[in-house]
């Protein structure tokens, strides 16, 4: 018998479109610092946004302190019109309509770290090294930004991981240590740090002990992060629209420990095994590296605040283009057709027969 409650709701990624409820007025421009090649694109962009589009432009205060930018003549014409903030000090919540990143994948990771709750839509231009997460080319930035301002764009909702570090509290502590919460876009990595000993880490899923990790460590990644550190450690690649968490061992001392994919709604708990010889170290998107001792725990689950990444084409084309261009996925020389191969064979045979003819004397 049919049961309507048993029907699974599956969302087509193509249905995720950028829609403005009011015209965007404020934009945060994030640029890669200490890179001379990005100075000119940055100045061109902010000039256009301020003078042509009459937008309020926010930049980090550290950007204006860049010596290379201070020496760029045309920048002084727009410098006084820019709004500034300092990461970790000023709150940008509800102040930004959308974000433009100029640089590599690291600029998008930095944009994610600035917003520990809701994130504005992010438009990322490829001006860095790899560019897996930056689908836009800068040469015609005016037309592409106009498309975004008019709402003609697809979105990829990139899930993030909510990571909570709980420290062991001693009875003689005057105050219980407050948990630390960090959101990551790529992955949280647990490893053995500088210790020469193999790591010994317990992994729990929704409170149930799943396995103990004996090796160099463990990677817990989002689908976006599956093409970062995780793929280098042998994991599968997951489209960013898939609701999942990837768990990948780092050099496990076991032939049967393969990467696994678990549902996005579960809670992972990672802690040192009671008989572990050394502490474990944890880092979040390559930052905030810290040691965890016996009694400390790391809880990881999917955050309710994704990063809305604006697509250059659409969710499918952007991802597979990045796989081919950045990772050379399934890139090889094409096999010849049979008629081409036949022509080559016949030509070779004819040449052989020609060489065997007697020479005229």
Descriptive report:
The strands form 4 sheets. Strands 8-7-18-15-10-11 form a 6-stranded antiparallel β-sheet. The chain has a 6-stranded antiparallel β-sheet with strand order 14-13-12-9-16-17, with no helix packed on it. Helix content is 22%, strand content 28%. The termini are far apart. The protein is built from 9 helices and 19 strands. The protein has helices spanning 39-52, 61-64, 67-70, 76-79, 105-114, 141-149, 229-232, 315-327, 338-356, and strands spanning 26-31, 56-60, 83-85, 98-103, 122-126, 155-158, 161-166, 180-184, 187-191, 199-205, 208-215, 217-221, 244-250, 260-263, 268-272, 280-284, 287-292, 297-302, 307-310. It has 361 residues and is an alpha+beta fold. The mean pLDDT is 89.
Topology:
Blueprint: E1 26-31, H1 39-52, E2 56-60, H2 61-64, H3 67-70, H4 76-79, E3 83-85, E4 98-103, H5 105-114, E5 122-126, H6 141-149, E6 155-158, E7 161-166, E8 180-184, E9 187-191, E10 199-205, E11 208-215, E12 217-221, H7 229-232, E13 244-250, E14 260-263, E15 268-272, E16 280-284, E17 287-292, E18 297-302, E19 307-310, H8 315-327, H9 338-356
């Amino acid at each position: 018998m049919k049961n309507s409650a048993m029907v699974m709701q599956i969302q087509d990624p193509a249905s995720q479109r950028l829609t403005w409820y009011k015209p965007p007025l404020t934009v945060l421009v994030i640029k890669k610092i200490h890179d001379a090649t990005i100075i000119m694109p940055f100045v061109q962009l902010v000039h256009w946004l301020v003078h042509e589009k009459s937008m309020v432009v926010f930049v980090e205060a550290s950007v204006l302190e860049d010596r290379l930018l201070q020496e760029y003549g045309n920048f002084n014409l727009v410098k006084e019109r820019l709004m500034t903030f300092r990461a970790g000090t000023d709150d940008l919540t509800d102040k930004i309509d959308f974000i433009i990143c100029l640089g590599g994948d690291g600029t998008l990771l930095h944009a994610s770290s600035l917003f520990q709750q809701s994130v504005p839509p992010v438009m990322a231009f490829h001006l860095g090294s790899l560019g897996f997460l930056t689908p836009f080319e800068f040469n015609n930035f005016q037309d592409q930004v106009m498309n975004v301002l008019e709402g003609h764009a697809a979105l990829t909702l990139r899930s993030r991981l909510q990571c909570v570090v709980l420290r062991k509290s001693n009875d003689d502590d005057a105050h219980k240590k407050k948990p630390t919460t960090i959101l990551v876009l790529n992955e949280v990595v647990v490893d053995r740090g500088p210790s020469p000993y193999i790591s010994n880490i317990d992994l729990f899923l929704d409170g149930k002990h799943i396995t103990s990790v004996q090796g160099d460590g463990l990677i817990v990644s989002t689908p976006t992060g599956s093409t970062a550190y995780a793929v280098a450690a042998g994991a599968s690649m997951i489209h960013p629209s898939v609701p999942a968490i990837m768990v990948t061992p780092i050099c496990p001392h076991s032939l049967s420990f393969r990467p696994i994919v678990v549902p996005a709604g579960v809670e992972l708990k990672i802690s040192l095994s009671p008989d572990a010889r050394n502490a474990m170290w944890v880092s979040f998107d390559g930052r905030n590296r810290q040691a965890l001792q016996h009694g400390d725990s790391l809880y990881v689950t999917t955050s309710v605040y994704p990063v809305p990444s604006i697509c250059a084409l659409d969710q499918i084309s952007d991802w597979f283009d990045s796989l081919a261009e950045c990772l050379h996925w399934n890139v090889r020389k094409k096999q010849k057709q049979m008629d081409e191969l036949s022509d080559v064979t016949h030509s070779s045979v004819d040449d052989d027969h020609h060489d065997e003819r007697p020479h005229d004397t």
